[in-house]
């Protein structure tokens, strides 16, 4: 599905209007539709190219800078560098052929061209290959380095780091640093008791701007401050404005609605 030039121009103009609302959505410039249930929470920057028809969920405060994304759920505060690829389709490895023509005979209309009147009978005999692009999950505060490849369906735990050029084909535990091909855990970002505290506190449910009296560069003291704020009821979870799939596929209309009634991002 391609956009005509008028639609493309309207969409490009709308995309320029979102940053004041906390949304940078350049990655959607060629995306005509998103799967039902998709959403993006503001503020967030989605500059990675989003594949047409993708299932996409992106939490607030993400910086998805480059590469290509498809069928992915991204937790808050995640960062994706340029050249990252995830959401590629798997082909069968143990069939007669790996070619999509075997399970998608209508590919480019080849069924009608090559099989003619036999095309309907071919469809009725085709084998079903369902799991070609399962959903990939990135936890909150995940950072993916330049040029990494993440196999579709992998889950990357909260706070994990994927090194530049890594090839990730298996799930990654929270707060692990993974490098290489195939990806291997280099170490955890913090000692295990600290990781357990981080997973208990789930600081990403708050706005980072409510946490600035916690020293960012001293994890133990930061957790002390956040835990203290939580127990004294001084922190309220952040709830960002959410644009859903139907709005994300009609950006000019979504922008018009926002400009009519701007929604405050702060709690
Ligand atoms: C993974 C990363 C965060 C690790 O940083 P670090 O903790 O400072 O790691 P070090 O440089 O101390 O390296 C530790 C070991 O991991 C190896 N290593 C580090 N990064 C690697 C990578 N991307 N691929 C393969 N091995 C890597 C080092 O060779 C070293 O191995 P050794 O112990 O056998 O000598 C970093 O190297 C990286 O890849 N950053 C991504 C940067 C990026 O893509 N930025 C884009 C802008 S968002």
Describe the protein:
The protein is globular. The protein folds into three domains: 1-90 and 133-189 and 240-262, UDP N-Acetylglucosamine Acyltransferase, domain 1 (3 Solenoid); 94-130, no CATH class; 190-239, no CATH class. Helix content is 24%, strand content 18%. α4 (192-201) packs parallel to α5 (219-231). The chain has seven helices and 19 strands. The protein has helices spanning 5-17, 110-115, 119-125, 192-201, 219-231, 245-248, 251-260; strands spanning 23-24, 39-41, 44-46, 49-50, 56-58, 63-64, 68-69, 72-74, 79-80, 85-86, 136-138, 143-144, 149-150, 155-156, 161-162, 167-168, 176-179, 184-188, 242-244. The strands form four sheets. An eight-stranded mixed beta sheet has the order 1-3-6-9-12-15-17-18, with no helix packed on it. Strands 14-11-8-5-2-19 form a six-stranded mixed beta sheet. The chain has 267 residues and is α/β, with parallel strands linked by helices.
Question: What key attributes describe this structure?
Answer:
7 helices, 3 domains, binds coenzyme A, eight-stranded mixed β-sheet, 18% strand, 267 residues, six-stranded mixed β-sheet
CATH superfamily descriptor of the largest domain: Hexapeptide repeat proteins
Helix content: 10-25%
Q: What is the terminal separation in angstroms?
A: 39 Å
Proportion of residues in β-strands: 15-25%
